[in-house]
Design goal:
With about 140 residues, the protein is α+β, with helices and mostly antiparallel strands. The chain has one domain. About 25% of the residues lie in helices and about 20% in strands. The protein contains four helices and seven strands, in the order E-E-E-E-E-E-H-E-H-H-H. The strands form three sheets. It has a three-stranded antiparallel sheet with strand order 1-4-7. The longest helix has 16 residues. About 15% of the residues are buried.
Length: about 140
C-alpha cells in the first residue's frame, strides 16, 4: 500500500515557473499612516488594498530561516523570508517616485514603520501558512 502525502502541492524548484499551489496573493493585515490618520489595509475597498504576490515556504526551506542564537533563543528571519518569497507588491507607491514600489525597494526603505509592519506581517503569514489546516490534512 502506498501512502499519499498530505500536502497542498509540489513546486517544481528546477523551473522558474509560477505554481498555483505555491504562488498566491496575500493582503497584509497592517495599518498605514496617511495624512495623520491610521488606515487599516483590509478595511479599504478591495481595489485599493495593498497586496503581495508571494510563494509559500516549501519543505526545502524549513531550516533556511530559523536560527538558534548563542543565548539559546530562536531567531526567525522575517527579512530573509520576505526577500526570498515576495515577488510583487501592488497598490503601494514609491515614497519619492510616481510608481509602485518593488519588494527590494521596500526592504531598503528608511524610517518607515509601515514598511516594517508589512515585512513582519507577510513573513508571519508565510510561516503560519506553511502548515496544513486540520481540514486540509484530512483531505
Amino acid at each position: 500500500m502506498a501512502i499519499k502525502l498530505n500536502a497542498i502541492g509540489v513546486s517544481n524548484i528546477d523551473k522558474d515557473k509560477a505554481n498555483p499551489n505555491i504562488r498566491h496573493k496575500y493582503v497584509p493585515d497592517t495599518d498605514f499612516h496617511v495624512n495623520g490618520k491610521i488606515i487599516g489595509n483590509r478595511e479599504l475597498d478591495e481595489d485599493d488594498q495593498v497586496y503581495v504576490i508571494c510563494d509559500h515556504i516549501v519543505a526545502a526551506d524549513n531550516d533556511k530561516y530559523g536560527r538558534f542564537k548563542m543565548d539559546g533563543s530562536y531567531h526567525m528571519g522575517f527579512v530573509e523570508i520576505f526577500k526570498d518569497k515576495v515577488r510583487e507588491i501592488h497598490n503601494l507607491n514609491h515614497p519619492t517616485e510616481d510608481r509602485e514600489i518593488t519588494p527590494n525597494e521596500l526592504l531598503s526603505t528608511f524610517g518607515s514603520s509601515d514598511a516594517r509592519a508589512i515585512i513582519v506581517d507577510v513573513a508571519k503569514h508565510l510561516i503560519n501558512s506553511s502548515e496544513l489546516s486540520e481540514d486540509e490534512a484530512k483531505n
